[in-house]
Amino acid sequence: MKIDTFNFELPQECIAQEPASNPLEARLMRLPWAAPLEHHIVNELAELVAPGSLLIFNDTRVIPARLIGTKDGSGGKVEIFLVRRTDRIATIETSSGKFAGEVWRTLGKASKPLREGADFLFGDLCARMLGRSEEDGLLEVALYTRSHKPVAEAIREVGQVPLPPYIKRNPTDVDASRYQTMFARVDGAVAAPTAGLHFTPRLLGALAARGCEIASLTLHVGLGTFSPVTVNDLDDHPMHEEHFTIARACSDAIIGARKRGSPVVAIGTTVARALEASADRESPGLVVAQSTSTKILIQPGYQFKIVDQLFTNFHLPKSTLLALVCAFGGVDRVMSAYRVAIEERYRFFSYGDAMLIDPNRSVPDALASSEA
Question: Does this model's pTM top 0.90?
């Protein structure tokens, strides 16, 4: 499908620069099928989903991926943006001895080109430039600590919150907590699964009172979520790869939802991607528990196999995330809703407002009819 299908003009004032003072007071647009859209607030979500619904969250944890330090020797400023850790360990020899360095794929910038063999200092955390990956063109650095403390601990001490590029300010202490969902537990993301930012213990309590259940999976959100589409046709877009894990507890929760005829609500596009990438071909409506990577591109024409409702933020124009939302809710319906959102000055993107979408499809009932 042509990428211009998902284009729209967004006033700068609609791009949320700060989190809502109260997540439950964020606005929530509902798109019910065959009915006019509705305006709500997030605190009303429990009244908008069916009793017994299964809500699935992404429990990835955002790492403080932005490292600002100096070049060893010259003292020149250097900035490294951690993208993902590899499985490799590199032996780093220094005047202080030998160190085992974790190899990471990164972005980097400095006043002069970053060269192989250069060393960078971020307090106790150190990095040596190894070169550039032939696989994806990213820089490779080996991270180690002079004190021999775990690298992950050192990153948490010196790293900054990796706010998205459309948030035009430096991160603050508020971002350290608010750019992290209440479900975050598995380190690995460089961007938050932002639909989950709206949820609080109070809202979960209201959902539980309605008989709803929750489950989680892990998909580490990468920089690809912000990658612009540079081709005219989405079919030609090189889709980014993201690693995810669906545990047995999550797949069992879906089985339970199917047995009682309850909808599966994906909290965010990352959850939708992981679930659809894991659809069980042998058992319609169910998923395979697995740990793998996906490059799945979901665009209009795709037939959803797992997700029955989608709770999501408002996305970038001409993006693969908006294409997924349009595939789920219908191009005309979603793009019309976006126009209304702009007119009504909804807040867009990571710290923005939310949308709950009902598609024109019934809950898979293979298990409900055969095992109820």
Answer: yes
